[in-house]
Specification:
single chain, 317 residues, alpha+beta, Uridine Diphospho-n-acetylenolpyruvylglucosamine Reductase, domain 2, Uridine Diphospho-n-acetylenolpyruvylglucosamine Reductase, domain 3, 3 domains, 5-stranded antiparallel beta sheet, 4-stranded mixed beta sheet, binds flavin-adenine dinucleotide
Length: 317
């Protein structure tokens, strides 16, 4: 499966850009679930200015999607039409400790690294990031959280570039946060953010971080090809409980399986396609609705298009 080469048709517009452009780049290599088709054009900007320039010259009708470290993504087998932007550590990987318990991090900084830097600086409240394998860009979009703390509890402001290449600074309130969701305009590319936490004793912070790691090791299949929690917790309930009750622990479709260890984690046992993974998810939703009447909502972001003839109708949507 490959798309028409956008570089061949648009290449002259991109002269002077310092980032990397790759046509038909397979995305299975950069997602945790290791499945799915290519990006029609992948752009890895050199820095924020390069990103803004790229977006300002890209024709408006070309769709743009930003991905982070791919730990919450299910890419469909037909791939993603248009441009996929991926921010790399070189231009977006800086961490800077500011005054007053504040810390700035680029969008490509892994959550764990922010937790480490905060601990080094004696800034508390970031231990939850130790167990989340994504990057700051994804955390900002997903309102990533664990152990009772969410991104919105620590966020001060976000810098973002819009679809036309203009730079914006958004406050925490502008991000419109709710559980695993931000209502900030979908086209924004987050490039960095400022966070804040209470000044605390480093040893206490390190103990909390170690507890988070130990919990993950015990309870989650963190060494598998997975996307983390497949579904959001329904109000007042846990997704894993209703999945388990519906008999879906260990359920498989092709190479996709609901983990035996944590049945809200979907895993690629080795050969899963995007189709296997999504069909498994929809099957789980159907069985849970039939068993307990609960309507599960996907937490994993499904992106891109189906291969012809492999369309999956969402069971509940
Ligand atoms: C083993 C495991 C455990 C996990 N545990 C947790 C957990 O405890 N809590 C939790 O909340 N999540 C958890 N996750 C899910 C995932 O790690 C988080 O959602 C994470 O925040 C996603 O970040 P990412 O960089 O991987 O983003 P991606 O998965 O690449 O993208 C996620 C979303 O963010 C958007 N996005 C990414 N970067 C940007 C950017 N720079 N600008 C604009 N939009 C952007 C994408 O378009 C997409 O919609 C887990 C995942 C795994 C595999």
């Amino acid at each position: 499966m490959s798309f028409p080469d956008l570089l061949a048709s648009l290449g002259s517009r991109f002269e002077g850009l310092r980032g990397k452009l790759t046509a038909n780049q397979p995305l299975s290599a950069v997602t945790w679930l290791r499945a799915g088709g290519p990006a029609q054009l992948l752009f890895q900007p050199a820095d924020e200015e390069d990103l803004a320039q790229f977006l300002s010259v890209l024709p408006e009708e070309i769709p743009v999607l930003t991905i982070g470290l791919g730990s919450n993504l299910l890419v469909r087998d037909g791939g993603i039409e248009g441009v996929v932007i991926r921010l790399g550590a070189r231009g977006f990987g800086a961490v800077e400790v500011l005054d007053g318990g504040r810390i700035r991090a680029g969008a490509a900084v892994p959550d764990k690294r922010l937790a480490e830097a905060a601990a080094d600086a004696g800034i508390g409240g970031f231990a939850f990031y130790t167990g989340i394998p994504g990057g700051i860009g994804g955390a900002l979009r997903m309102n990533a959280g664990a152990h009772g703390t969410e991104t919105c509890n620590r966020l001060v402001e976000v810098t973002a570039i819009d679809r036309k290449g203009a730079r914006h600074v958004l406050t925490n309130a502008d991000m419109g946060y709710s559980y695993r969701h931000s209502s900030a305009a979908p086209g924004l590319v987050f490039t960095s953010a400022v966070f804040e936490g209470p000044l605390e004793d480093e040893a206490k912070i390190r103990t909390e971080m170690a507890e988070v790691v130990a919990h993950r090791e015990r309870a989650q299949p963190i060494r598998e090809k997975t996307g983390g929690s497949t579904f959001k917790n329904p109000p007042g309930n846990s997704a894993w409980k209703v999945i388990d009750a519906a008999g879906c622990r260990g359920l498989t479709v092709g190479g996709a399986q609901m983990s035996e260890m944590h049945c809200n984690f979907m895993i690629n046992t080795g050969t899963a396609t995007g189709h296997d993974l999504e069909l498994l998810g929809e099957t789980v939703r159907r069985r849970v609705r039939e068993h307990s009447g609960v309507e599960l909502e996907w937490e994993i972001k499904r992106l891109g298009q189906f291969l012809p003839g492999e369309e999956i109708s969402p069971f509940l949507d």
